Structures are given as structure tokens and as C-alpha cells.
Amino acid sequence: MQLRVLGCSGGIGGVARTTSFLLGDRVLVDAGTGVGDLPLDALCGIDHVFLTHAHFDHIACLPMLLDTVIGARRQPVTVHALPETIATLQVHVFNWQLWPDFSVIPDADNGVLRWAPIAVGESCDLDGLRMTALPAQHTVPALGYLFETADGAMAFSGDSADCPAFWGALGRVERLRALIIETAFSNREAGLARVSQHYAPETLLPALARIDPSVDVWLTHLKPLDASCIVAEARNGVHRIAALNGGQTLDF
Predict the structure, then answer these.
(1) How confident is the model over 53-98, as pLDDT tens digits?
(2) Structural domain containing residue 120
(3) How far from 220 is each of 9, 16, 149, 174, 195, CA to CA, in Å?
(4) CA torsion angle 250 38 243 167 (round to 10)
(5) CA-CA-CA-CA dihedral for 113, 46, 16, 4, to nearest 10
(6) Which residue, 38, 78, 201, 239, shows the most beta carbons closer than 10 Å to its own?
(7) What region holds the Metallo-beta-lactamase domain (predicted)?
(8) Please, what's the largest Cα pairwise distance for the chain?
(9) What angle do CA 34, 148, 166 make, to 5 degrees?
């Protein structure tokens, strides 16, 4: 399985795109602004979207995706998320004011959007890919995800501060090859990271001691103005740590 990074920035500007990953051809993880760079045929081929949480930088392109592909879909696009995330999007986005409710378009029995609630620990099997919801700690209800194939596994933290349950779940994963983990702020803004429930390098590095040093660590959600500083502060010589980049692909 290949993961393609459509967006991994904590902001916009130039080539920066917000969080979205494409697994194979059919599965999106989050739907940030990077989704908008996909060609039309690729957009039409997306069957599943797994959301980590409801913040705008992670769902910005979901409304436009549904509007774009409606004429090409014979089956709905299934959006997997926490019940709290679904409720937020129903009330504040797909509410006929900010955006139409695509769960009842073109009609109530054949909506192009199908909601699929998921809870921490639950898994979904999709053609050789297993998606498992992992715990996260953020300012709103949030998830991380574990991606598994017969060959290996990769984890994604979503937006999260230090979450012991997340690291405990990773400790039970066999053949974990890589971890994509958010590190939104540099150490000079560690106070802001704590308030907004994100990592800074000073909180990330002690947390990484809980996993095997052989696991590749990819930093995501870096604030654009501090990206190089965050990476420099996070490199500790123990784990293989690098910044994720838009357009990058990872195999697992």
C-alpha cells in the first residue's frame, strides 16, 4: 500500500497544503486543502474518507469534493468519523446554510454522502487495508489512525497533544514501520502548543522514547514560518526524524 501526501502543512501559502493523505486510490485520511490538487478522475475514485476531527484545516475540501463528484457516483462516499465529529459537521457545515446536506442529495434515499460513526479501537477492512481508530488528545474530540496491510503498519497521530493511550496502542502493533506525528509549534511557542493541544519538540521527544528507535518518524502539521526550526529542535540522534513533504509517498 502506498500513502501519498496531498497536504501536511499547518498553514497555507505557496505550495503549502493542509492535511490530507491518499491511501491507494480509494481512501482519504482527512480532507484538507491538498485534496483540491487531485485530478477529476482521482476525486471521482475516492470511496472512503476517514476524518481525525472537525477542525477546518482537516475538512476544508470535503464539501467541495462531494459537490464535484456527485454526478459520477453510483455509490455514496462514506465518511468515517467520531459521532461528535459527525454531529459538528452536520450542524455547522452540511446545514443548508453554509453548505447543502449531501446526505440527502440527490434524494433522501440516495445521498452522495454516507456517515459511518467510528469509535476508538474500531477497525474497518478495505481490500487488504485495515484502518483502526486510535486515541488522541485535542481541543475537540479527535482520533489518530493505524494503517495496516499484510506487509506492515503505519500510524498517524492526527492533531494531538501527548496521549498515553495512543502510545500504549502503538506498543501493541507488530511491524510498525513509520509514525506520522503532528508537531505544530516550535519550543519557543510551547505554551501555545499546550493551550491548543498540540506537540512541540520538547513534549514530542520524551513521548518518542516509548517506541522503538527503528520506527521512522515523520513530522507533520508544521507551522510554515517555524517549520525548519521545529525540525531542528526535534532531531535528537535517536530516532530517524524528518519533515513530511507534500507530494511525498510512503510505502508500507
Answers:
(1) 999 999 999 999 999 999 999 999 999 999 999 999 999 999 999 9
(2) 2-251
(3) 6, 12, 22, 23, 19
(4) -60
(5) 150
(6) 201
(7) 17-208
(8) 56
(9) 80
